[in-house]
Specification:
Blueprint lengths: L1 H14 L5 H19 L4 E2 L3 E2 L6 H23 L2 H47 L20
Antiparallel strand pairs: 1-2
Helix pairs in contact: 1-2, 3-4
Amino acid sequence: MRKSSAVTKIAVQADSPQQNFKEKDRGCTAMAGEETAGQNKGFKLLGILDVQRTPCARDAILHGAGGSVAAGMLYFLATSRVRRSFDVGFAGFMLTTLGSWFYCRINNAKLRVQQRVIQEGMRNKVVYEGTVLDPTNKPNAEAPPGPP
């Protein structure tokens, strides 16, 4: 309801010869604010885990779903026991989801450590470049001197 009234307000203002640009801009930003509020909600799993904002959550849940289907179907095809197949599928979901989650989180942690080391190295290079402490300017004792 609110969006349609804002759109009508902007349309009426655009048709009038005396346009008040400040009100027109305010109407546009209000509509943009409403749209971004709708986009920021995200998808919450069980009302706890915001899948859109939590790193690795989406991939872990998708891998878990695939693992559950594979485990349940294979167990059903092997034994034809429906209830036990569901249990195996649920266990497959839990194991695959947790395994994928931890694997992804560990890799992200390793990546952050590597990035931190590289950033520190770049910072040190900028700080020490051209000084006596610059490791790239230290002459090697084993290297022969330049051409005579």
